[in-house]
Amino acid sequence: MPRRPRDTSAGIFHVYTHCVWAAEAFFRDDFDRLTFLRELPRAIELAGWTCIAFCLMTTHYHLIIEVPEHGLQHGMHRLNFRYAMHFNRRHAMKGHVQGRRYGATRISDEDFLLDRYKYVARNADEAGLCDHPAAWIWSSYAGTVGLRKPYSFVNANPILACFDCPSAVAVARLREFVEKG
Q1: Structure pTM?
Q2: How confident is the model at residue 96 (pLDDT cuts 50, 70, 90)?
Q3: What is the CATH number of the domain that holds 146?
């Protein structure tokens, strides 16, 4: 049975991927994560994305991105290909780094965007990698809520707009929403 065609229209997506069986981790160490974070802004610029959030775990990563028409595939190809080249060269491997195609779920409304954002922001905390969502340095969350310097390539305006209030109040409400559990 053939795979379903990808959604190629513009919109906001929750994107995720996992490592291949031959690699014990998608990110073996902080150097791998830094390499990925060097490639992510390049893919964002090339594909015309708006990065709303990200979280890099050990075996996978999550992105919440707004993409133009046909922008998801082009950006993901660039991001995953470039990262795989670096990963394979560094770890003396070859072939795929991802176990299967990346997943991409269209975010259809503000409630779903808030739900997916909370999931991504809490992912490391829920996995036991940190004690609090803002403590995971490989996530954009702490920068979005003002607890750390924000990543220059992250634009949190779409998530903050869900609260329909001034920016400082929206940040406080987002933090309360995410950290309530």
Answers
A1: 0.93
A2: confident
A3: 3.30.70.1290
91, 131, 140 from 18: Cα distances, Å: 17, 23, 19
In a domain, 4, yes or no: no
108 vs 116: CA distance, rounded Å: 11
Give me 181's structure tokens. 């559990």
Q: Is residue 5 part of a domain?
A: no
Sorting pLDDT into bands at 50, 70 and 90, what band is 4? confident
Q: Where residue 109 falls among pLDDT bands split at 50, 70, 90? A: very high
CB of 28 closer than 8 Å to CB of 83: no
CA distances from 142 to 5, 103, 124, 148 (A): 35, 25, 12, 5
Could you write out the DSSP letters of every residue in 76-117? HHHHHHHHHHHHHHHTT--S-SBSSPPEEEEE-SHHHHHHHH
- Answer whether residue 3 shows pLDDT above 80: no
Q: How many Å apart are CA 140 and CA 51, to the nearest integer? A: 10
